[in-house]
Amino acid sequence: MTDPEQQTWWRTTRGLAVAALGGAILLGFLLFVAAMATGEETVLALPVDYLLAAFVMPLVLLAVTFWSARRQVDVDREHHMSED
Questions:
Q1: Computed over its alpha carbons, how large is the radius of gyration of the chain?
Q2: Are 56 and 31 within 8 A, CB to CB?
Q3: Of 15, 54, 76, 77, which has the maximum CB count within 10 A?
Q4: Domain range holding 32?
């Protein structure tokens, strides 16, 4: 691998990591704000803020993780760094 190509790969990988982390933090903050806005509302006798924290947040983090992993595979293949 050439040195400029490796630098491009690292720059892209670093940007992807920052985007995934930033996206997860932003979505977590938005879910927190949504949970605070619901007040005392309940669904199936459970507070809505609890449901958002217990069920939605892990799904959001899982989606961000899978998006990041899929994108990293594409970046690796684009720069000939894949394990295939």
A1: 18
A2: yes
A3: 76
A4: 3-78
Place of tokens 């899982």: 62
Mention every residue, 6+ apart, whose C-beta is less than 8 A from residue 13: 72, 75
Cβ(25)–Cβ(84) under 8 Å?
no
Residues 6 and 75: beta-carbon distance below 8 Å: no
Place of tokens 């903050």: 29
83 belongs to a structural domain = no
Give the distance between the most distant pair of CA atoms in the chain. 60
- pTM confidence score: 0.77
Which amino acid appears at position 41 of this protein?
E
Number of domains in the chain: 1
